[in-house]
Amino acid sequence: MGLLLVFAAVFVFMQYNAFLYQDTVVRVTYVDNTFSYDSEGPDGDVERYYDQSMKARILNGEKRGAEISLSNIYSDSGVNDESYRKGDRLFVSVSKDVKTGTILGKKRDVYLVMLICIFLFLLLLLNEKRGGIIFASLLINISVFLFALSMYGQGGKLISIAFALMLVFSILTLLFAGGFHKKTFAAILSTLLTTLLCYGIYEIVLHSCKRLPYEMMDYVVNSADLSDLFLTGVLMGSLGAVMDVSISIAAGVAEIIKQTPDISMKALIRSVREMGYDIMGTMINVLFFTYISGAIPILVVKIKNGYTLYHLVNFQLIFEIIRFLMGAIGIVLAIPVSGLCAVLLLHMGNRNEEGQVK
Hints:
By secondary structure, the chain is of the alpha+beta class. Helix content is 64%, strand content 14%. The chain has helices spanning 2-15, 109-127, 129-153, 158-178, 182-207, 226-259, 265-304, 309-357, and strands spanning 24-40, 46-58, 67-75, 89-94, 101-106. The relative contact order is 0.09.
């Protein structure tokens, strides 16, 4: 109950936090929509465009309380524009006479904080103390990532930062998830080894093929570090899948040994293989859905604008295909590698300890 009250207080605060921003924040008080014109696309589809005339009240700064006029154009699809409604809070640039303004963007911090609160509430409700630990590890990983971005902005080498992030993410995430146990160290070791194997495979295959059209990647604005940029994305994508498989295999082996300490090596390996079968199918499909979901919006837009399937596969989907294949290879490799590390550290280590005791 107390947690719900805290979340409610945070939500109310976010509704009235305009004073925290240097940019001018306004609340839309009136909207009038009128049809403007039609535009026909390459495939014959017609899209309608509308004009919006709005009134808004300034919520912060010296001109707080003043009313200004705003205008906006939006389309049915909303691909390159957005429609606004009464009650929306917007960032604007106000004219000198404080009568009109230019919309800079929509203030979305309320929705972001709402989602974070829902996520944290469910995490704590279902996992209690463990949920708090998971959330703390997430915050630390985000902080590490932001620090790495600042280092890159100061001139750091992208690929070196990527490998450092792999090491830090693997250790921090798995330690928070599994604690200081042998299974955790087995998972860390197998994660790093598998990711390095994926990197080696990537380098061998890419150097034996012609250069990828890196300049066609989404959101690329300059030609610096394009190959390293793509490699970083591939490694980070593979890392997440590999970590999941590694900790699952290590935890499974640890539980089997705990329940049946006298299990033979052959039986343990057979159990690891069965766990691998169960994990592999679902994880590879999850990886496929993850990458394809990220590509769907831009693919739909390009198809609507007359791009051919050949162009999409060779200059758009090729990057998602490589990311998916490297992640899938990582999942497949992680099963034997994590199984081997877990058996060596947990089963054989346990046998050695028993022998020393005897």
